[in-house]
């Protein structure tokens, strides 16, 4: 009797009917209470109606879906002016930037540094390096360039000081190893470098940090030192290029994609008919896009660094953007760390602010998943995660950053996240179906030009 009067929706009827028939002696009043509570929640949930309308929204043909992407490309091309540099701005602070240098130039810089050390010792000043200070207090966000740069102050790293003795020794050893690499014209990974003197370095983090110090000291990019990171990032989609003479077709690389070369300088003859680049935070979303051949329906290039962006992926993304002159749209988690990852691609990182001119890709659009999408697409409550204290702290710090304050849309999304204290991953979209990301969410976002 209760069942007939409740008039459940077809979905609820099927769900509860299975529970009753499967349980055998499932209490009738319990079944009724489940139905009634669900109906009550549904009637008061505007987001439920919103998603129903959104789900029924017609996805147009690929050309129509990408119409606003094409308009974005044309607008960017039309507003293009001369590339501004630090020297053009006349900033009140002296800033330090590095450039790519040939092996012979790196060798000359190393020998000059050691000569200065010898002169310092002979003059009685002792064995010490003037190392550029890479701490946050010595960094500056430049709105005109929309990236973080390093100011020019230095700190002394003396061999005679107990506080800096070991770091001075590591610096000297790294200089020696880089000199050998450039002399032999060979490349090694950061891991290889660490294992040349494990007892001195103790931890790879120590040798990696000093390697960045050395690049900054010599005024060259880290890749100029012939030390590369292991392959991490991958690419798939409408892209071909040459790597050491081999032609690479990224549309034929399968679900795993093509590993981004650690030495991006060897990538030449880039060709593509893609309309945009889709930058994806996580490997799981990348694999879904690759398996569904999203790039064939909506011509694009899909890139991921599988989390925190590495140098090669950042260099590769910048190279593609400059060569192809197409928009870059980002798909990251709706949490503070997703936005931090996007900020590293766009504004630069603390550790490598000295090389931000080579590593940053300007004007990346935040396509999703944004905090406002959680209600707009009715992400189920069970797929939303409560923010931890660390998440809230990270979000608060982001709101204090100058590069975030410069973008009101970012501020609005972050404030919404901080207020709701809720986050979600890209995979939360799978609650509507494993292919919802590729068949509904992304096409709708592209069709509406819903990026910031």
UniProtKB/TrEMBL annotation:
Pfam families: TOP6A-Spo11_Toprim, Topo_VI_alpha, TP6A_N
Location of the Topoisomerase 6 subunit A/Spo11 TOPRIM domain: 276-446
Keywords, ordered alphabetically: DNA-binding, Isomerase, Magnesium, Metal-binding, Nucleotide-binding, Nucleus, Topoisomerase
Annotated GO CC locations: nuclear chromosome
Active site: 195 (o-(5'-phospho-dna)-tyrosine intermediate)
E.C. number(s) listed in UniProt: 5.6.2.2
Type II DNA topoisomerase VI subunit A all-beta domain span: 231-268
SUPFAM superfamilies hit by this protein: DNA topoisomerase IV, alpha subunit
Molecular function as annotated in GO: ATP binding; DNA binding; DNA topoisomerase type II (double strand cut, ATP-hydrolyzing) activity; metal ion binding
CDD domains: TOPRIM_TopoIIB_SPO
Gene3D superfamilies, sorted: 3.40.1360.10, Winged helix-like DNA-binding domain superfamily/Winged helix DNA-binding domain
GO biological process: DNA topological change; meiotic DNA double-strand break formation; meiotic DNA double-strand break processing; reciprocal meiotic recombination
InterPro entries for the chain: Spo11/TopoVI_A, Spo11/TopoVI_A_N, Spo11/TopoVI_A_sf, Topo_VI_alpha, TopoVI_A, TOPRIM_Topo6A/Spo11, WH-like_DNA-bd_sf
Reactions mediated catalytically: ATP-dependent breakage, passage and rejoining of double-stranded DNA
Subcellular location: Nucleus
Protein name: DNA topoisomerase (ATP-hydrolyzing)
Organism lineage string: Eukaryota, Viridiplantae, Chlorophyta, core chlorophytes, Trebouxiophyceae
